[in-house]
Amino acid sequence: MSIAEPVKKETAAATGSLTVKDNRDGKSYELPIARGAITAADLHKIPGEDIGLLNYDPGFMATAAVKSAITYIDGDKGILRYRGYPIEELAEKCSFLEVAYLLLNGELPSDQQLATWADEVTHHTFVHENIKEFMHGFRHDAHPMGMLMSTVAALSTFYPEAKRIADEKPRRTQIVRLIAKMPTIAAFAYRHSRGLPYVYPDNDLAYTANFLNMLWKTTELKYEPDPILAHALDVLFILHADHEQNCSTSTVRVVGSSRSDPYSAVAAGVGALYGPLHGGANEQVLRMLEDIGSVDRIPEYVARVKKGEFRLMGFGHRVYKNYDPRARIIKKVADQVFTVTGRNPLLDIAIELEKIALNDDYFVSHKLYPNVDFYSGIIYQAMGFPVEMFTVLFAIGRTPGWLAQWEEGLLDADQKIARPRQIYTGKGERHIAE
Ligand code: ACO
Hints:
The protein is mainly α. It has helices at 40-43, 87-93, 96-105, 111-122, 129-136, 144-158, 168-194, 207-216, 227-240, 247-257, 262-274, 281-292, 298-306, 325-341, 346-358, 361-365, 372-383, 390-410; strands at 16-21, 28-33, 71-74, 79-82, 85-86. The radius of gyration is 23 Å and the shape is globular. The mean pLDDT is 94.
C-alpha cells in the first residue's frame, strides 16, 4: 500500500441545505448540509475578494476539520464517552490498558485480547540504552516535559521503520512502543531531575504499578506499589486518555497529515500539551492554590480574576459549558488517595474556591466550571509528584488517544495535508528603494 492510499472511503448524504444570499450582487447559493455541517469547500465557491469566500475562525471555534468515531462530548450536558461508553463506567470498570485498546480498536478487548495486548505493551517498556544516555545529557534542572518531548522525538531515530506508516504491522508496533515507553521515559525524566539512578521496568507489574516502581524504587529488591495509589493513577490516566479534537490532539493530527512518523507527531502533541492553557494548567492550578495560601484570601483572588488581571486556572473549557464530568470522578479519586497519603491541605482552598466561583455571577454567566485539571494536581501532589511532573502524567494518559486519532486521520480518505488559509493584512506590493 502506498503512503497516499487510505483504507476507508465514505460520502455522507446531504440531509438538508442552506440557502445563502449574497447581498453584494443578489445571487443565491445552496450549500448542502451533511452531518450537521456545511463544507468550507462549498462556501468557497462563493466569490470572496481575491479568491472564494473563506470562513475566518481563529482557534477553530466552529470549524470541524475531521470526522471521528472515537470520542463524543456534549459540552452543555457534561457528557464524555469513548467509543460510546460513558467515562464514568470506563473509570469504574476498566483498566487504562483496556481503555487504550478500546480507543485504538473500537471495542473493549476480550480476556484473551487483553492478555495479548498487555503482554505486547509490557514487552516494549524498555528503552534502548542510548536513550538513557541521551536523557542523561539534559541539565539537572531540565523541565520533564521538555525532556519527554525531545526524547519521544528522538525515538524516531531508533525505529526507522516507523516511517512505514501505511503498513499496518509497523504502524501498530510503533503504537505499542509509544504506549509502553511513555511511562519509562517519564520516570527517567523524574529520576534525572532528582539525580537518582534510572530504574528499569519490572515486567511482573501491571502498567501503572510498573510506572510507580520506576519512579519510586530505591534499595528494595522488589518494589510493591500501594494498590490504592496504583489504581487511582490508572483511573486518572483513563480520564485523560482522549478528548476529541483538543489542542494537542489536533497538533498530532496536523503533523500526521504530512505523513510524519508517529514519534514526531506525538512529540509535537507533547509540545502542545505543555502550554499553560492546555495540559500545563494542572501545574498552574497548584501554583495558584499555593499562591492563594489560605481560604480567607480567596475573595480577594476571585475579585482580581474578575478584574481581568489573570485567569482562574483549572476553570473554563472550550467545549464544556457545564461541570467537566472528569472533574467529578477526580474528586472521588482524591478521597481514595487521601486515605493513603493523608489530606492535601490545598484541597480545602480548592473546594472553597470552587464554591465561591460557582456562586459568582461572573463565573455563572461565563459558564466557567472546574475542568479536569482543577483537582488532578492536588492528587498528584499528595502522591508525591513535583508540580513539573503533572503535565507529564497527563501526556502518559493522553498517548493512546493521540495515537488512535493519528491513525484515524491517516486512514480517512477525506483527510489532506493540513494547510489553513489566511486573511492577509500586510502591505500591498512595494519595492526596495534604489
Ligand atoms: N478565568 C476567568 N475568566 C475566564 C476563564 C478563566 N479560567 N476562562 C475563560 N474566561 C473568560 C474569558 O476572559 C472570556 O471572557 P469575556 O468574554 O468576558 O472576554 C470568556 O470567559 C471566554 O473565554 P475564551 O478565552 O474566549 O474561551 P476559550 O474557549 O477560548 O478558552 C480555556 C478555553 C483556554 C480553557 C480558558 O477557559 C482558560 O484559559 N482556562 C484556564 C486554563 C485552563 O484551566 N486550561 C485547561 C483546559 S482543560 C485542558 O486543556 C485539559
